[in-house]
Specification:
35 strands; Methanol Dehydrogenase, Chain A; disordered C terminus; five-stranded mixed β-sheet; mainly beta
Length: 482
């Protein structure tokens, strides 16, 4: 195993060899590795197993309007650190019906009909559902995989919500702490669907005290564990998976400040890299000019680029505050860029490949508050666009080439009077098509999920579990500082 330090710049001038054509085919079309390959769907937290955060969907226009909004309850639960109102929404077509799936701090996973905005079914777990679910298949049946803070991993029938299997990662005790589980990454290899999820469990018992972070690989058909490996004593981030020199490789990071590569089929650790601080940022994998790289942020205000083969540092960019967001990828391999948000209120677009230590942003955009969620990349015509959410209660659409504001949308008031910086984890915007029409989904801080589409579409209707008037606002009071 290779161990490397964040202070080591060795190898920055030696990019190694480009990937093979077979590997690069997956980097060019990451959904080839996914279990759920429906064109126009967004089946997992960052869209695909490489966690690129981008989708080849044409929004058709920069002017979007409300199609529907969904709010299962107007009751706001008390604020608790690390809690989110919603997970990142995922979307796909199940048995001919376009559906949206989103988890909530009210312990429910909701399945919503995208055509109407009405609830189709809900599954109630024993604790909040704070990790984004993922779509895949169980014995050929469309399924949604749901981690919850009750220490359980659930597989549900995506059409009905009926449980298919359930796996408890640690037995309940009176002293057990609610678990922290990552969003699953679901792939298909050799005809088998595999589900990867990071799990952190803790127990405050005086005799059996434990804090254990692990990575699990489940066989999707029956919920059996293919492998599990301890990775840290702290929680981790959602894993990314990519083929590197013909080997399926899993990349993850932890709050212990360590980035790691593992053999995705065996769980064997290939290398570790010590970051400059803890990381809450899920890795993204790209191949600028054909060279494999892993990108992630840290709470020492930095964005890293590591060699995916060796873990050597290839780039590092310093922002003005924490980088908890996962990088999104923008542009072709020969001009690949990273889009990453920071708690310094700004969104940065950086060159994905650099020959040395110094990195100049391609562009930056300053919002009215923290940029703590991850960006989504789509297009309008042949022009890339970036969708990002800020704590100023706005969803922004920016030009991918220059960061110009093309459109924005405001949600309502935050459910609570305040939150502490970094305590709450919030869902990101996603893009998907339904019946061939593009939608943008915005799970907002006011407890409402907004579905937005182009103004050229038919007039929107509001059908929710409880009708909510859309507020006309320009922002909320500043909650943090840079």
């Amino acid at each position: 195993m290779l161990y490397l330090s964040g202070g080591c710049a060795a190898g920055e001038s030696d990019p190694g060899m480009p990937l093979s054509a077979a590997d690069l085919a997956v980097f060019d079309e990451p959904m080839l590795l996914a279990s759920w390959r429906e064109p126009g769907s967004w089946p997992m937290r960052r869209h695909d197993p490489l966690q690129t955060g981008r989708i080849d969907v044409d929004l058709g226009t920069t002017e979007l309007e409300l199609a529907w909004q969904f709010q299962p309850s107007i009751y706001a639960r008390s604020y608790e650190p690390t809690y989110a109102t919603w997970t990142t929404p995922i979307a796909g077509t199940v048995d001919g019906r376009p559906m949206l799936f989103v988890g909530s701090y009210d312990h429910n996973l909701y399945a919503v009909d995208v055509r109407t905005g009405k609830e189709v079914w809900r599954h109630t777990a024993g604790a909040p559902v704070l990790a984004t679910p993922a779509l895949g298949y169980v014995k050929g049946k469309p399924a949604v995989f749901v981690p919850a803070r009750d220490r359980n991993m659930y597989a549900l029938d995506a059409a009905t919500g009926k449980p298919l299997w359930q796996y408890e990662t640690r037995e309940w005790t009176f002293t057990a702490v609610p678990s922290l589980m990552t969003s699953p990454t679901v792939i298909e290899t050799d005809g088998k669907t595999l589900v990867y999820v990071g799990v952190w469990n803790a127990d405050r018992s005086a005799t059996g005290n434990v804090q254990r972070g692990e990575m699990y690989c489940f066989n999707a058909d029956d919920g059996s564990v293919r492998w599990q490996e301890r990775t840290s004593s702290t929680p981790g981030a959602s894993p990314a998976i990519a083929p590197i020199d013909g080997r399926l490789t899993l990349f993850s990071a932890s709050q212990a400040g360590v980035a790691r590569a593992m053999d995705a089929l065996t769980g064997k650790t290939l290398w570790e890299f010590t970051l400059d601080n803890d990381s809450r940022s899920a890795p993204a994998v790209g191949a600028p000019d054909g060279y494999p790289r892993v990108y992630l942020g840290t709470r020492f205000n930095a964005c890293y680029g590591l060699d995916a083969r060796t873990g050597k540092r290839r780039m590092r960019y310093q922002t003005g505050n924490w980088v908890d967001s996962a990088p999104a990828l923008l542009g072709p391999r020969d001009d690949l860029r990273l889009v990453v948000g920071s708690f310094d209120f700004s969104l940065y677009t950086l060159p994905a490949r650099t020959a040395g230590r110094h990195v100049d942003p391609v562009w930056t955009f300053r919002t009215g508050n923290w940029v703590h969620t991850s960006a989504a990349v789509a297009r309008v015509g042949d022009k890339p666009v970036v969708l990002t959410i800020s704590w100023d209660a706005k969803l922004y659409m920016l030009g991918g080439d220059d960061g110009a504001v093309l459109w924005s949308y405001s949600c309502g008031d935050l459910l609570w009077s305040h939150v502490e910086q970094g305590d709450a984890l919030w869902g990101s915007a996603t893009v998907a098509t339904a019946d061939g029409k593009p939608y943008v989904y915005y799970a907002a801080y006011d407890g409402v999920v907004y579905a937005l589409r182009g103004k050229a579409a038919p007039a929107p209707t509001t059908t929710t579990a409880r009708s909510v008037a859309h507020p006309e606002r320009t922002g909320i009071k500043e909650l943090g500082s840079s």
